[in-house]
Fold:
Amino acid sequence: MVLTLKKIGALFLLFSIGIFLIAPPAYWLVLELGEQHTMLSHGYSVVVMRTTHGYWPGSIVAGVGLLVFSFGLPFAQSHPTAYKKALTASGYMMLAATALLIIGTIGTKAYWQNQFKEAGYVQCNETKLVDINRINQSIWAQKMAYCNDPRVARSLDNLSREELERVHRILENEP
Structure:
């Protein structure tokens, strides 16, 4: 009985981790994509390109792989061939997830750089504006002069949407 409870606990843990690897990343993916599109469509003077959502597809695939594994585990003794198929499928999903973590980030960065360039933005040197280099974020401006504007640097701290809106209002009202 104790062993059965341990197995149920382990399955529940695997299932919970699988759900955690799917639900929040799916939400964050939709949220971040919407925010990127909003910034571009509203024509903010200064925008932030965030590429962390490039990780989320890989996380979602890993979560599905973990769910396949956790659902296949109870059939290990009663249906060994079904378990082997579930284990193989789960293994391939984990390999695909690992590849997606790498490729997704590279692809996301290339896609958004192209989108920002097509919209007429130029990439700023982040260290001049926020005194920090962030691996998954880059600052883009409609004019290169905005990249060196001290008012922009003073207004940006954590690169939030509110700060970007404030910078846009400041630059929009200049003579």
Remarks:
- DSSP finds seven helices and three strands in the chain.
